[in-house]
Amino acid sequence: MVFAKVLIKCFGREFYRINAGFLSASIILIIGYGLFIKSAGHVPEGQSLTINLILLIHFLQTPAITLVVCLLWLLYTIKCWRYMWKTSKRHDQLFWRYSATSIAYTRQLIAWTLFQTYLFIPLLFYWMVVLLYGLYTQHYEAPFYSGIYLLLLTWGSALLYLYRFNSLTFDQARFMLQWTRVFKQWPKPPWSLFLLELLCHGKLNLMVTKGISLALIIAFYTLFYDVDQPTRTAALIVLSISIAHAVLVYRDQLFTEHHLYFFHQFPYRPIFMYLQRWITYTILLLPELIWCIFHFQFGTTTLLIALSISSLLLIRSLADIIGQHMRRYLQWVFIVFFLSIFFLLYDASWLLIGINMVIAVLTYLGNYYNRETLSIVK
């Protein structure tokens, strides 16, 4: 259809150009896994690549991985919606508000469906690989349910776009939940400011991070539930969840330096502000902490909660020292991660927690009055 071609030309190509880096990194990550995964036992000469591809396809067709992929598909779909919302409000795209309404609803719906299918080409490629493997092995559950899910996302997106471009009373503030209105009249103590920032401007980062946490918890139940050392395994999972929040911690550091630098001028004691940070990260990890409380015994739960919060506070102290250098920050985060694994493997979890807390507190107190953020950021 001509309408679908015009939509792809005006919106679709620009979407891929903007997200080329993200899509390329995702493809390289999946293909790299298939090329470098190692199988157990002796591999005949010349069959290494074939076996690696078989393992990769089997990995993609695993039910637990399929659930994680469905969550990532939903995040990708929301990314498409956000792009359309922002782009359609540009002055050079306002003509769609009256030109699209001159076409019948049926033709518009078909065109938007084709347009969303174009945006879903990376997802369709993944689904085709799973489908071919399902046909070969005669296991049709994952291809069938993931295909239905993909169709629902496509049709739901098409209906959403149809409403967006045809509703004369459409208003983004009414249609989408605006957290600023929900919390406008609430008191805002210092610990809540970064959380509100995430809810208002960092929802995608928050959802991706929580999706990684969910994937790690699913991996604990599906891969490591019957291990000989469940406490050690749970500690490794909790440590990985804390490291997964490193991007949000870095965002907190940027938000504090750019928007909360004036807090150092208030008559707050450093220990009070440090407790505010403790509360912030406790609430940020609240879903994971609730999982620990309801799944493990009291002693193990206390250990896991202390490990997760202390690890997050240690990472935050690294951000205070390094500043706005993302590459160096991530390098040190991975160094901390591997050193922490060394302590956990030798069942020195409480020693690790103590070291984390001492370093985090000393770093915070040592840098509280000696920071560039004491000056007004231009």
UniProtKB/TrEMBL annotation:
Natural source organism: Olivibacter ginsenosidimutans
Keywords from the named record: Membrane, Transmembrane, Transmembrane helix
Annotated TM spans: 20-37, 49-76, 117-136, 142-163, 204-225, 231-250, 278-296, 302-322, 329-346, 352-369
Keyword Aminoacyl-tRNA synthetase attached: no
Protein name (Swiss-Prot/TrEMBL): ABC transporter permease
